[in-house]
């Protein structure tokens, strides 16, 4: 994640993320699966979407949206179901292999893909539906009543932003499922991203506290205080002292 963002293959980053939760995952093997998928596509957007979402049946997991497996890219490839962001990654990876310039679009609440060549958006969660700008506006209106869609919400996003959003999803799932291990692992990875903030480290401390690891939480707070801006430093130091007091 610290490399030049333009050099990061989003599918590789997503598989490495999955390997942090699924020990023994063979990243190279699953990268090869994208080559196999691309071999069955004609080199145009409709050919790619038709093969992935038509012939192979990739689709959104509406019945199990908050299943963590929807965020493990290997599981998405194996089960052919996922959430908007992982299905978009599949489309991006396969599209690039056949010569298309498909990028991720981090629209609030619903991730999309965009074929830059044609200006067409793709909703992977809805079976690879192709959308023009008006179609995206209708989709957004259904999700956000009374809020106006602006161009900034449809700006392409890079691999680091996509990985962060995936980790945000996993933290959310962990909170819903009351899974302390998933919460710690996801918040820890997020705190290691190059753009990690003091807030990310405070959330990691909270995750350790929820798992009963008070000393680890205090250590994380100490590290956060050392890197925090001056106006936040003293408050974090006091919080770390309060956390350590719980050990007595």
Overview of this protein structure:
- The chain is α+β, with helices and mostly antiparallel strands.
- It has two domains: 5-157; 197-245, no CATH class.
- Helix content is 57%, strand content 8%.
- It has eleven helices and seven strands.
- The strands form two sheets. The chain has a five-stranded antiparallel β-sheet. A two-stranded parallel sheet has the order 1-2.
- The radius of gyration is 20 Å and the shape is elongated.
- It starts with 9 loop residues before the first helix and ends with a helix.
Multimeric state of these chains?
Answer: single chain
Query: What structural class is derived from the secondary structure elements?
Result: alpha+beta
Order of helices and strands: HHHEHEHEEEEHEHHHHH
Counting H and I runs of at least 4 residues, what is the number of helices?
Answer: 11
Strand proportion, as a percent range, falls in 5-15%
Work out the number of β strands: 7
In whole angstroms, how far apart are the ends? Answer: 39 Å
Tally of individual domains:
2
Please tell me the overall pLDDT.
95
The largest beta-sheet arranges its strands as: 6-5-4-3-7
- Low-confidence runs: none
The major β-sheet equals: 5 strands, antiparallel
Q: What does the overall shape look like?
A: elongated
Helix content: 55-70%
Radius of gyration: 20 Å
């Amino acid at each position: 994640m610290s490399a030049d963002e333009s050099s990061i293959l989003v599918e590789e980053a997503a598989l490495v993320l999955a390997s942090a939760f699924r020990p023994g995952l063979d990243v190279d093997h699953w990268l090869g699966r994208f080559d196999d998928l691309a071999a069955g596509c004609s080199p145009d957007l409709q050919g790619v979407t038709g093969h992935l979402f038509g012939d192979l049946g990739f689709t959104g997991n509406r019945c199990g949206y908050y299943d963590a497996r929807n965020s493990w890219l290997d599981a998405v490839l194996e089960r052919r179901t996922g959430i908007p962001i992982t299905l978009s990654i599949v489309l991006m990876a396969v599209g690039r292999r056949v010569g298309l310039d498909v990028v991720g679009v981090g629209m609030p609440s619903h991730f999309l893909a965009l074929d830059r060549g044609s200006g067409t958006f793709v909703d992977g969660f809805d079976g690879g539906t192709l959308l023009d700008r008006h179609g995206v506006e209708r989709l957004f209106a259904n999700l956000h009543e009374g809020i106006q869609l602006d161009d900034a919400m449809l700006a392409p996003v890079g691999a680091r932003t996509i990985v962060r959003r995936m980790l945000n999803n996993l933290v959310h799932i962990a909170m819903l499922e009351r899974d302390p291990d998933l919460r710690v692992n996801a918040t820890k990875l997020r705190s290691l991203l190059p753009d990690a903030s003091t807030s990310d480290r405070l959330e990691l401390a909270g995750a350790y506290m929820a798992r009963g690891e008070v000393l680890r939480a205090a250590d994380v707070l100490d590290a956060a205080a050392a890197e925090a801006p001056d106006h936040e430093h003293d408050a974090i130091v006091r919080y770390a002292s309060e956390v350590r007091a719980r050990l007595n």
